[in-house]
Every structure is written in C-alpha cells, then in structure tokens.
Design goal:
Double Clp-N motif; Clp_N_dom_sf; 11 helices; Clp_R_N; single chain; 185 residues; ATP-dependent Clp protease ATP-binding subunit ClpA; ATP binding; elongated
C-alpha cells in the first residue's frame, strides 16, 4: 500500500512518528497524522488551517487528550465504575506536583528511541485513505486521502479533536474531496 503514497503522504506518516516522539506519546495515532497534515505547506494543510485547525492549538489539544488518559474508552470505562481519571490526576498533581503521573524520564527516554506502534485506529485510517483514493478513481494516495482517512470515523481521536475545535467535519471532508478531484482533472 505504501508504494501508492505520494511524497507528501509519506511525509505525513513519517512526520506523525516524529510528532508522537516529540510529544512523548507511546503510540502513533490518528491525531498525530492530523497534526502533521495541519502543519503541511500544501493544499491539505491550507484547507485545515482555513477550517480552524492550527497546528499549535491542535498540538495542545493532543497533549490534553493523551495526558488525560489517552484513550477515551479507558476514561469512560473507569468513569462507569465511579473513577474520574481527571479528578485523580488533579488530586495527585496537587499533592505531588505537576506531571507526577507522567512516565519517569529514564523509561520514556528508552521508549523514545525504540519503535512506536501505530494504534489500531491509525492503521484503519491508513487503510481508509486507500479506499478513499479508489472511490475517487485515483491511483495515488495523497495527503488529502490521508485526511479523509483520519476524519472518516467520528470515534477517531483526530475527528473528535477537530469537532472539539469547532470544525464542521462533514463540510471539511466535502471540501477535501472537491480538492482531490480537481487535482486529478
């Protein structure tokens, strides 16, 4: 599948790994791909910024989401049995200082040099980018197809962060499809 990726799409995938490392995350998620796309100096990046997804704001949202427990499903599962993860973190930081629950430096440094896996959602988004390219009758996977992939499912963290930032995801996806079909013509 990666042989079909254009240079800009490959850069988005490798850039997502670099962003995950820089943010000290233990995974490469759809949010990291979205962050790289938002900072790109191409049509996809411009469209994202025009819709209100600035890289700095998005990076801050990612840090908050991943610091709050990362996977919202874990937070929701704990909440269902009466544990508020945000309240636990807040109380711990009041007692022991900010970042008390973060990974100790030695452990995170070892991890940062090693392999960072893609989340199942990120893998699915990459597969979906191929499906979007095929659906649009295109042989290459461009950064716009990646964007359609990471915004395809409202359950993906990337889509939730975009919605939280006030983006009309359906409108954005429609604009990206128009952009991709205009490029192909």
């Amino acid at each position: 599948m990666f042989e079909r990726f254009t240079a800009d799409a490959r850069q988005a995938v490798t850039g997502a790994q670099a962003e995950a490392r820089a943010l000290r995350d233990r995974h490469i998620g759809t949010e990291h791909v979205l962050l790289v796309l938002a900072g790109a100096e191409d049509a996809t990046g411009r469209v994202l910024r025009e819709h209100g997804l600035a890289p700095d704001d998005l990076r801050a949202r990612i840090v908050r989401a991943n610091r709050a427990g990362g996977d919202v499903l874990d937070s929701d599962a704990l909440r269902s049995i009466g544990i508020d993860l945000d309240a636990v973190r807040e109380a711990t930081e009041q007692s022991f200082g900010e970042g008390a629950l973060d990974v100790p430096a030695g452990k995170s440094d070892r991890f940062r040099r090693g392999h960072i896996p893609f989340t199942p959602q990120a893998k699915k988004a990459l597969e979906l980018s191929l499906r979007h390219a095929i659906r649009l009758g295109q042989k290459e996977i461009r950064s716009g197809h990646l964007l359609l992939g990471v915004l395809h499912d409202g359950g993906f963290l990337s889509a939730r962060l975009a919605t939280e930032a006030g983006v009309d995801v359906e409108e954005l996806r429609a604009e990206v499809r128009r952009l991709l079909t205009a490029k192909a013509a």
